[in-house]
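How a chain folds remains the central question behind the approach discussed here. This step matters because it turns folding into a mapping between discrete strings. The sequence in question and its structure tokens are set out directly beneath this paragraph.
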Amino acid sequence: MAGFGKTLEQSRDGDTLYARFLRACQASEQLCAPLQIEDYGLQAMPEVSPVKWHLAHTAWYFETFVLAVADADYQSPWPQYRHLFNSYYNGIGVQYPRARRGLLSRPTVAEVFRYRHEIRQRLETLLQSGNASEELQQRIELGIQHEQQHQELMLTDLKYCLALNPLRPAYAGHSGCAVVAAPGTWDWLDYPAGEVLIGHDGQQFCFDNERPRHRVLLAPFRLASRLVSNHEYLEFIDDGGYQRPELWLSDGWAERQAAGWEMPLYWEQQGAEWAHFTLHGMQPLPLQAPLAHVSYYEADAYARWCGARLPTEAEWECAAGDCPVEGNFRETGRLAPVPAVATGAGAQQMFGDAWEWTASSYSPYPGFVPMRGELGEYNGKFMCNQFVLRGGSCVSPQDHLRASYRNFFYPRDRWQFSGIRLAVSPPDAPRRGGRQ
């Protein structure tokens, strides 16, 4: 199957496919532990999905693309779910409208959990039998990665829905994790001109949109050593950044006016102080923490205001290639960005905290070949009108990320943990971060 490395029964670190499958299923359900039954059906806008739908859809994937493929005579005990929980696979059939997923009071939450558990037991039987073919194992690996994507979406979608409740309920109590000291301004890191290789280069799993690995010619560039902070973005707001059309792309200015944007999503000004809604409820805005929940349009306008730009995805991957996948991920329990450690040594926050908007349109790499059959719809058909984000966020699973990972969203989207890292092209680059 195009887009897969040779990820079969055992991964490079010795973890079995069976163990990874069970861990992914359990992690999704553990995320539901703080929820009340009323929380499972929330859908505050068409772009988000109810938690219950995410739980059912990830089970639907394993039933549709693994169990039904493993057994030519497979008959689903839940034939109606083929329609209800199909996200966008036209090759499978017509989908229930995305904007109406919150209307599905049935199946109940209990029935969805029973569905998940039955599918999990059938997958366990298949994996333990030793009869899963290479193709089936690859489909299961894709399903594990798919489930991890939906775990992140469960948190971002739920945050959006809870934020609209006047009670501002918390998803979870505060983690109590210590926040590191504020780092001060950023440094500019220099990268020379040259030919670089980008795209996935290993034998482990990757999505098809990360391939093929190919050469890109880069001009010299400078990359900010860390993400833009809330304090730095407040300077943009105070300088009238949301009222200055010369800073904005035409589509971005139209979107800002139509939507009434005056600040990032979830921010509020409370007298002389700023606060923001988090998965721990309303909190004072941590000024030195990385900015999150801005659109591509806002990120681009801020970069222009700074006399800088957003990096291309090739520049970002070049800079991230030697960085370990370490940082603030879902596993820390913080569920919010935290300031960088002030080490003064190289790039920081390349992974975790906030997805980083790039200047690159989401398009196929040269020679891209999607997966065969219905799974070819997984990524390829979305390669239009969206922008690439890199690096992961504070609600991403750590073992889901790598330097070649390509996330993508529409330029207006703000409900994801999306932030900003600046780039500049010498010799015009300012030597320090901040407004010129």
User: Anything to note?
Assistant: The mean pLDDT is 92. The chain has nine helices and twelve strands. The longest helix spans residues 134-163. Residues 275 and 284 are 4 Å apart (CA to CA).
